[in-house]
Here is the input.
Amino acid sequence: MSGRGAILVRLAREAIEHDGEVRIDPREDWLQRPGASFVTLKLDDELRGCIGTIEPHRPLGQDVVHNARAAAFRDPRFPPLARAEMPRLAVEVSVLSPREPLEAASEAEALARLRPEVDGLYLEYGSMHATFLPQVWESLPDPADFLGELRRKAGLPPGFWHPGIKLSRYTVEKFR
Here is the structure.
């Protein structure tokens, strides 16, 4: 793992273990720049929490600390992390690239433009929205399934398509 990756994973783990009381080294100026991140927690290789930010709106270091705490204690899919679980906890930090529009007039066009195992995808339709990190391709390798489950996550039927759907993609740098 790179030096940056080790720092980000350490920040996330310390945020969880020390109630968010983490010292962010001011000499690491890249941590002070706005950044968007997701923190994914796994317990015995099973998802235990995943919370993140799509658009950068605070310094990357603070974003990682905030998302680590949220993934551990406020992911609505799971009860708050217990102290006894912490030693078995695997922490992954994903730093997102800026999103770019994925123009598609039809579902077939969207599927043809997706880059499996590379693209994270953000879907918006009216007030509904959802995202899948590129890591989700591991469990949903078929582009049609990937897009269908993303629509379901957003609260839409899996086969739904409308010209008002907006898609954008991004990549991640991930660290464990």
